[in-house]
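Practice problem: predict the structure.
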Amino acid sequence: MLMYELLSKKKTGGILTRDEIDFMIAGYLDGTIPDYQMSAMLMAIYFQGMSADETLYLTQAMASSGQMLDLSDIGGVKVDKHSSGGVGDKTSLVLAPIMAACGLKIAKMSGRGLGHTGGTIDKLGSIPGFRTDISITEFKQNIERIGMALMGQTAELAPADKLLYALRDVTATVDHIALIASSIMSKKLAAGADVLVLDVKCGSGAFMQQEADAYALATEMVQIGNGAGKKTIALVTDMDQPLGMAVGNALELKEALHMLGGKGPADLWTVCLAIMEQMLVGSGQCATESAAKSQIEKVVANGLALQKMAEFVAAQGGDADYVYHPEKLPAAAIISPVLSQESAYISRIACDEVGRTSLILGGGRHTKDDVIDAAVGVVLAKKVGERVARGEVLAYVHGNDEAKANEARERLLSAYSFSDEPPQPPVLIKKVFSAPRDVVL
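Answer:
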């Protein structure tokens, strides 16, 4: 088999076989296929596309290029949730302990945030002592004992994807749906869960800003997951304004802890509830979404969800007292209001601009080596559809540097748009993509 022949086949619209794709990925991983040939293949795929089978084969080849976690010795249904990321997206912090309290086993691998989207690991890092550099043995033990565990993605997980992504980044081939889907799903398949629930964000604060693109990505990932024998469900959810009110690591963790205690923003709960219902029904734990909702509400009301969060934090080295006393989390020295300059309805909040405001304050990373200030960020006071008077507070900037706080206030104010008439309320759950075929757990 020659890479030249595969290139010739693909550039003319041919369909690559599983053996051909396995050969290509193995060769690129061991260095026998050079960057220039793989770059040519990526460009051929970009213009010719990939069939559903090709995308599945590519995903499986990348997943099996490194360590494949085996969670089969853990009792119960193992579930993983993936979010494509967004501003104020703290859904994992809310739903993981609730799902563990409901009896599911949550096996989650997360990355750190980069740019204006925060990472779950960074948010939990606001708790002293909390660590995600746990061994796979410890990871599995915590899943078995507590019902949930979180660890950072290891270099051994889907190494071929890491190499391919770096190449895509410099060859302008990142924005191809099949390549995006295979990259995400290769890591999910390698992580070993039985059920995958995917939250594909859509809007100004998301990677997929157009609904059509978000639907295409969700469809592709569901096909891959189910084709690989994992029951896979995807939801497309709104990210045209921040989710919840808080943006920033400690601020978001505090909001998530309040939600676990039964309090918090309605939009955050709506999105979390929709994802959790799919997790419980998809895993077979509940027969209907209504039954799932009842079980979820019960474990929040009786305090079991918050207890699971405390057990999880303690098991990974953190001070569990912070779970019950979130006021102990890092707080900014400067908390200053952003005031409305007019009396009108809020018609839009540019989600990406809110995220960049937090980034200015030090709440995110420009590069992977940047140090995050856990205390800083933004807390919204008003959201789309609400009417405000001139001089009324729109949001609060939390900062530790006066110059950065001043710049952040100006940037945040520019993120708001207004209208004389009330806008249409945002649709939070745009679509749910269920398994196109039965997958038996």
